[in-house]
Specification:
The chain is α/β, with parallel strands linked by helices. It has 13 helices and eleven strands. The strands form three sheets. A seven-stranded mixed sheet has the order 1-2-9-6-5-3-4, with helices on both faces. It has a two-stranded antiparallel ribbon with strand order 7-8.
Length: 364
């Protein structure tokens, strides 16, 4: 049995299907959503040999012809050069406004293919088929698409909601362990900003939370998707509540940019960012110190970096990267901080000296 979560956005609403063995149903699920034209199947070099043929076969079984476009795996593919290659593939495949794009892969593929779909022919429909945990619980839902620039992450992009999200948990066993841990950072995030019970479940499970075959894992993923769906429905374009989803991301994105997107996986950088934001929260929004310690304990128990991992970085470079963040106002970064586990506040401006003090403490 699969779980469905609806993202309610009026005439742009769409379902998220969560379950096992769903890749074989991709074609029929697309047809149910009225997606019957020619498809461009966008994936990466790591996922194509694992699931590309199965996805194409499922589309074909539903009478949907497809062409494939494969980009190199990794964050380095989120560039305008790769985007141009996808436009070329779309032209060569004869995509028109009745066609659609299928993003099969992790967050990089989803962001890149989604932005291509948002801009090709001024917008064509697309489907998210996330194969990484991070993409399943976060980036595949909500319509954020984009590419990186040398000066920062996701600085060019568009809001473009998918027509369908298909989460097949059976793709997770082939995910490298480090990538799975990276995705768990986003799961922890939902617990911290909205769901103390979810955080408690992860805390109770400990290392067992890293087992995608676990009895509770589908519900954990579904819970994250429900939270994301509720936030997106209330604030699609991040005018308010949706900003809470950026907990840990202000510093996290800056760390990625300051190290050329080559040192940490996204979730690893966000984990460090959450440890930093938790420390700021104790200082500024009343987070109990005991909750701060619980947060660090859970992150470390999942094998995620938290503190000394940044010991060699220059604060001025990191601070400059935070000032360039797309969520900054007047080059002043805005933070999401916690009042307690399960409750967050957004849009908080932190004095520069407090940012530096927290950074120095983090490095120790």
């Amino acid at each position: 049995m699969a779980t469905t979560v609806d993202v309610r956005l009026g005439d742009r609403s769409y379902p998220i299907w969560i379950g096992r063995g769903l890749l074989g149903s991709l074609g029929s699920l697309c047809r149910e959503r009225g997606l019957t034209g020619h498809a461009l199947l966008v994936t990466d070099s790591g996922i194509a040999p694992l699931y590309g043929e199965a996805a194409a076969d499922s589309l074909a079984a539903a009478g949907i012809a497809s062409a494939a476009a494969v980009v190199p795996a990794g964050e380095a593919s989120k560039t305008h050069d790769r985007l141009l290659e996808l436009y070329r593939a779309a032209v060569e495949a004869g995509l028109d406004r009745s066609s659609f794009v299928v993003a099969l892969g992790g967050g990089v593929v989803g962001d890149l293919a989604g932005f291509m779909a948002a801009t090709y022919l001024r917008g064509v429909r697309y489907v998210q088929v996330p194969t990484s945990l991070l993409a399943m619980v976060d980036s595949s839902v909500g319509g954020k698409t984009g590419v990186d620039l040398p000066w920062g992450k996701n600085l060019v992009g568009a809001f473009h909601q998918p027509s369908l999200v298909v989460v097949d948990l059976d793709t997770l066993p082939t995910l490298p362990a480090a990538e799975f841990r990276s995705g768990m950072a986003e799961v922890v995030k939902y617990g911290l900003i909205r769901d103390a019970s979810l955080f408690g479940t992860i805390e109770r499970l400990g290392p067992a939370a890293l087992d995608p075959a676990g009895a509770t894992f589908e519900e954990v993923v579904a819970a994250c998707c429900r939270h994301k769906a509720e936030v997106v429905a209330a604030d699609e374009r991040e005018g308010g509540l949706r900003a809470t989803l950026n907990f840990g991301h202000t510093l996290g994105h800056a760390l990625e940019a300051a190290t050329g997107f080559a040192r940490w996986r996204h979730g690893e950088a966000v984990a460090i960012g959450m440890a930093y934001a938790a420390r700021l929260s104790v200082r500024l929004t009343g987070l109990p110190p005991a909750d701060h310690d619980r947060i660090l304990s859970v992150l470390r128990g999942l094998g995620l970096p938290t503190t000394s991992a940044v010991a060699d970085l220059c604060w001025s470079e990191v601070a400059a990267a935070m000032a360039r963040d797309k969520k900054a106002a007047g080059r002043v970064p805005r933070f999401v901080l916690l009042e307690r586990i399960g409750s967050a506040r957004y849009g908080i401006e932190v004095p520069a000296e407090v940012l530096k003090e927290a950074w120095d403490a983090l490095r120790q």
